[in-house]
Write a structure and sequence with these properties.
- The chain contains seven helices and six strands; from the N terminus they run H-E-H-E-H-H-H-E-H-H-E-E-E.
- It has 190 residues and is an alpha/beta fold.
- The chain has one domain: Phosphoglycerate mutase-like (Rossmann fold, 3-Layer(aba) Sandwich), CATH 3.40.50.1240.
- The strands form two sheets. The chain has a three-stranded parallel sheet, covered by helices on one side.
- It is globular.
- 21% of the residues are buried.
């Protein structure tokens, strides 16, 4: 199954309903990754608030590994391939035709940061993915994504972030080009 087509589990559906009531009551915009699990997470919120989400390609999950390379494998069988990719840490490496490189992923998140974020209001809501949020925070803090050392450092950073399903993160511009991110009760400035 393609990464983009992985559906929500029953627990994920319950979490999507639960989080819908925790988000702004009058969103100015609702954005979603085009991946089915993010889109389906946005649906209870959109139904509750009588709004429509807009699919935004820049919000999609990092497709580091081509699904054709992983076809028929279990998560346990895929893990060593993913681990080898991150251990090699070649930011220009493409793991199959349908995969993107780490550089392309970082550039896509950067495009969202530069082209979308400055125009979004504080009541805009976006539905995305954990590694994407990790890359956004990484860039807001000012870290690089140019070489192998940067890629390895990003991976350590991303794995250390609290990324439970349906977590709510608030990103707010506090000065020109400076952002405050709130993760539950924790805050990171960048």
């Amino acid at each position: 199954m393609k990464h983009a087509d992985i559906p929500l589990t029953d627990l994920g559906k319950q979490q999507a309903v639960a989080v819908a009531g925790l988000l702004p009551t009058a969103p100015t915009e609702v954005l979603s990754s085009p991946f089915i699990r993010a889109w389906d997470t946005s649906r209870p919120y959109c139904e509750l608030r009588a709004v429509e989400a807009q699919r935004v390609a820049e919000l999609q999950e990092f497709d580091a590994l081509d699904p054709d390379l992983l076809a028929g494998m279990t998560g346990e069988q895929r893990r060593p391939i993913a681990d080898a990719y991150w251990n090699e840490a070649d930011p220009a490496k493409r793991m199959g035709v349908q995969a993107e490189t780490f550089h392309e992923f970082a550039a896509r998140v950067g495009d969202f940061r530069v082209n979308w974020m400055p125009r979004l209001s504080s009541d805009a809501v976006a539905f995305g993915h954990g590694i994407w949020i990790g890359m956004l925070f990484w860039q807001l803090i000012g870290f690089a994504t140019q070489d192998s050392a940067d890629m390895k450092a990003f991976r350590r950073f991303q794995l250390g972030l609290p990324m439970p399903n349906c977590a709510v993160y608030r990103v707010e511009e506090v000065a020109d080009g400076r952002w405050l991110t709130k993760v539950g009760t924790r805050q990171m400035r960048g």
